[in-house]
Design goal:
With 107 residues, the chain is α/β, with parallel strands linked by helices. The chain has a single domain, classed as 5'-nuclease (Rossmann fold). 51% of the residues lie in helices and 15% in strands. It contains six helices and four strands; from the N terminus they run αβααβααβαβ. The strands form two sheets. Strands 1-2 form a two-stranded parallel ribbon. Strands 3-4 form a two-stranded parallel sheet. Helix 6 links the parallel strand 3 and strand 4. Helix 4 packs across helix 5 and helix 5 crosses helix 6. The termini are close together.
Length: 107
Amino acid sequence: MRSAHSRNAPIRVPAAVLVELYSGRGTDEAIDTVLARGFAQVVTTGARMARVAGHLLANVGAGSEMAIDALVVATAIRFGGGIIATHDPEDLRRLAAPHPNVAILEI
């Protein structure tokens, strides 16, 4: 995040991703601290982005088990492309495959 921030590259986090991150157990504060630093902008999902995500799921024959991943890819598509950093790249790569302006970076 610091590297992207230092290059003025926008960092966007779909609000739905926070559902997977917030789990109590002492992790919420760390997430809130990172978000409060202003490195990343939390973006909401509207009907248009939900439609794109639904189409991405249909295109790969997936169901709701990949809904958050589809929203992440849909967010990147909506903002003109970008790099999605993840520790679990397989599903994201499947969803983003038809979109050359969306790259998946395994971290």
